[in-house]
Each structure stands twice: as C-alpha cells, then as structure tokens.
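Usage

Read records sequentially. Each one opens with the input sequence:
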Amino acid sequence: MAKIKGANAVLDVMYKWGIDHLYGFPGGSFDSTMNAIYEMQDKIKFIEVRHEEAGALAASAEYKLTGKLGVCMGSAGPGAIHLMNGLYDAKYDKTPMVALVANVPTPRQDINFFQAFDETPWFRDVAVWVHQAKTKEALPVLMDTAIRQAYAKKGPAVLVIPKDFGWQEIEDNYRVSASNHVADNYAAPTAESIEAATKLIKEAKNPVVYFGLGASGAAEELKEFADKFKMPMMSSYLGKGIVEDSFKPYLGTIGRLGAKAPNEVQGHTDLVVWVGNNSPFSVLWFPKNAKVIQIDVDPEKQGKRHSVDVSILADAKKSLRALIDAGVAREESPLYKAALADREEWDAWTASFADDHLKDEGRVRQEPIWDVINKEAADNAVFAIDVGNVNMDHARLLNMNGKQRWTTSGLYATMGYGSPAAIAAATAMPDREVWHLAGDGGFAMMSQELLTLARYNMHVLTVVFTNETLGYIEAEQRDESNQPLSGVIIPDNDWAKVAEGMNMKAFTVHDKAEFQAAVEEWKKMDGPAFIDVKYTKHMAYSTELNTLDDPEFVKYYHAEALHPFSYFAEKFGLEIDAASGASGHSEDKAEALQVQATSSASTPETAPDTTSGASH
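and closes with the structure output:
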C-alpha cells in the first residue's frame, strides 16, 4: 500500500476539504510541516505572514467573509502563543477555523527541552476542540475531526503535531468526511409562535425591527417585513450590510457607533421584533416594558438580552416569511414617520460636509474621505475594518449596497485586525477589490503585514486615518468617565514613508482632492497601495451625549441643522415621556447631560457614566 508522511497527510485532508491555502510563519518545530508544504505546493499555497497573530486573525476573517473555514499554523512555544489573539477573535465571533500547532519531537517532550511545553492546556479555554496526536497514524483522522468540530461548534479547533510524527510515514488509506458536510438547515417556526407574534404586531402602536448577524441571508424578507408592517429597522453593528444602507426604513446601528436616529428611536418603541441578534450592548437599549418577539436558532440566546414575550426558535428567513404571509399590513405609525424624518435630516447633515468646507487645523473631516470611498469602491468590494473610531465612521458613513462584504473583530474587538483581514480577503477573494481601513492606533499594531501584502502583490488599498490619538478611547475618557486624557496620544508619523520602506506605493493626503487622486492611481495598479490621510482630530458627533438643547454641544459639532427627537415626535404626533432629545442608553443616565465647552482640540464633557461601559 502507498505511504505518505504524517505532515503531508494533514495537508492532504485540508485539500480534500477544499482548503487550498494556510497562513503561518515557519519554525524549527514545524520543519516537517514546512517540508510537506514544499512538496505539496501545487495544491497548497502557504501565505507567510510576518507574525503568527496575523495568520490566526486572517484565518478567522476568512470564514467571516466567505463562510469557508480558514487554517493557520504556529510553531512550538512562542509561535503557538502568538496565535491566541486570533483564536479568541474566532471564539467570540463564533467563527470556525483550525490552528495547527507544532510541538517538539515526542522523545524530547516532558524533559524540560528547548521550546517544549504541554501545549494542550493552553488552548482549552479558547478552542472548541484541542488534541495532540499520540500516534503518527492518528494525524489525518485528527485533522478531519478538527475541521468537523470547528464547523459543528462554530469556533476554533486546535491540532498539536509533534515534529517527528510529521516526518514519519503512514499508510495512505485514511478516509476524509468532507463529502458529508452539508449546509445548516434550521427549523421552520411553529404555527403557534407565528400566531402569537402576529397578534403582538397587530396590537403594537410603535413597533420596530432590531436585527443582527443572524439575519444574514434574510435581507429581502427583512425589507418586505419592514415595508408591510411599517417598522423602522435598526441593527447591531455586525448586522450592517445585510440590508443596503439606501433602504430608507433602515436607520442603521444602535449604540455609540451608530447615527442619531436609531439611538433616539429605540427608546420610544412598544414592540421589538428581535432577529438573530446577540449584541451585548442591547441590554442598555429599548424600554424595559417593551414587548419582544425574538427569532433565533439558538435557545441559549432567547431572552438573554431582554425579556421576551414570544420566542421563535427557528430560522430567520423562514420565520420572517411566515410572519409576512400571516400578518395584516399596517399603516405608518407616528414613530415610523418620525424615524424616517430623523434619518433624512441626519443624512442631509452629513452630506453637507462632503465637500470639505470645514477643517480642523488644516486636517480633512471624515465625510469628504468617505464620500470618495462610497463613490470609488467597486459594487462587490470587500472592506477589512480595523477596530477603533474607524468602526464609527464605517457604521455611519459607508453606504453598503448589499453585494459588498466587510469584516471586523466584533465582540472581541482586537485592534490590529484590519491588515490580517485584508490579507484573508485578497487570498480568498482575489477577483474582488479590497479596502483595508484603519486608524493609526490599530494599524500600528500589525503594520508589519504591509510586507505580506507587498510580497504577494495583493490588490489591497490600505487607508490609515492619522489623527494622532486613540480616538475611541479618548471619547470614552471624555464622554463616559469624564477624566483627564491619559495614554491616548499617538506621536505623528510619516506612515507613507513606512509603507514605501515595505515595498509599497504610498501617498500622504490632506484633503478630498488628494485622496481622490491617490485612489484613482491605485485603481490603475495591479498590486497594493497605501494612503496616509491626515485626518481631523475633532471627534465625530456624540450620540451618547446628543444634547441638541445645549448651545456648546451644537457649536462644537456644527449641528445647527439638526433637531432633537422631540421635534419629530411633536411633528408626527408621537407621545414620548421625555422631550430632551437624549437617546437614553441607560435608565441610570441623567435625562439631561450637562455639557461644557473645552479647548478646540477636545469634545464637550459630561458627568461620568459609571453604569454602561458602552463601546460597540
């Protein structure tokens, strides 16, 4: 019978599962696997990142973008530990991936040898499955099991491979179970749950839809549902992009990242149709006495974030279709009218800055840059979004069309995610345009991966918004804890020169026209390019404060054209408990936030928020 080396057998299992590449960094304990990669280079492409963390984050990002499992590798000891950040990203975002971890040869284990550790316990908290091969014959079986476990349990699986097993030959007769892997097929809702839900929808005065990532694949049903029952739609941040931003009833993301309208509207509903959403910050939103219809396939999620009146343990697409078919169309409610008018005013206000007529110390505002991105990005572009204020700009200013894709580190929210995610996008989706968008803080953490983009000539545009501060943390210190700024300042840097030193075409821009010209230049190129945008230090509009009755707040944010929500409530006959216009993220937050003016380089301050700790 034919023979095959153990490491080659592991890669062969990958290949038979349709996985033709992996991300990693070589090490002496992985020599046998690196040899297998060399011998199988016609089937398996090795993407050599500059740090194992980047490989793990890339593998996590790949599934988020494609629905297909990614694989990374790390050598014994430090290489294995470096994978942890990416593995935790996958754990928190319920992302299947497999990490191959090396160990020293079996005779040198347990004798305090160089880089020899009992690695399995390290991964027990983060992994859905972790196992070290005890025999060489087990390697292909364990690799097949790791892939199945990752898909089944929606998280990272870890296979530890002793170096000597990778070199040793085994019989080439193992069976791979890839042909048995089928797409998820979730249940349809029960007739009783649909009947109870349609009754609540009929009785509600001001219902809304709140959806998350679990509603992926149900975009048309969401829109039809919102249109038939005249419900404003809001989402978690990770739900952005499921419904195109141009769909008027979709107000956007609730929370600090989101725009004004969703944060105001959420506080005045009496019924929430909660679809595939497990945002931890949703415990801070919606009236406590609001009724909830929750649609989710996971029973553990039912009632986790809010008391629930009707639980629908079923597929989002099937459940929404059943509700559409069973329910009676509604007229526009006062809240629906107020919500759409509030959104329309916000859209007009942000659009008014698109031509860069207001500058902060010669630095370009957010809106002109994102106006160019909206106009220049391909209809099927992929966006790799880092973590920080870039999430806020993305949530509010990028108009996604339903065909574009994006990814970020969601619940784990690790800075430095953008570069590895861009590598994953360019590797797994090479025919699509990739935009890597990051603040200078997040970018600096994984800046070495520009070398990877350049080495493989990936058609990625890296845009770094340089504002010389960890802006998201600065805003937390100012708006929530009302403390002196501490540890948030980033020294200015010539990031374009750094990119040029890493073999990449680079530009430094200060205004919309320069940015437009740089984007056009990249579009003519085959490979990567880099743009350092000298970005405003002025914080974006605070939807946490949102005190339009305060002249200093209005002045600081140039918000003269905006009205508090009480204006829309009165205009459309919506009865509300408080007319302050505050978005009310927490019942414990004071109804009126006292704002005082600070220096031109700072935002208004308010009393400390010690209750919410709100971020994403």
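Summary fields computed downstream for this record:
- The first strand starts at residue 3 and ends at 5.
- Confidence is low (pLDDT under 50) at residues 578-616.
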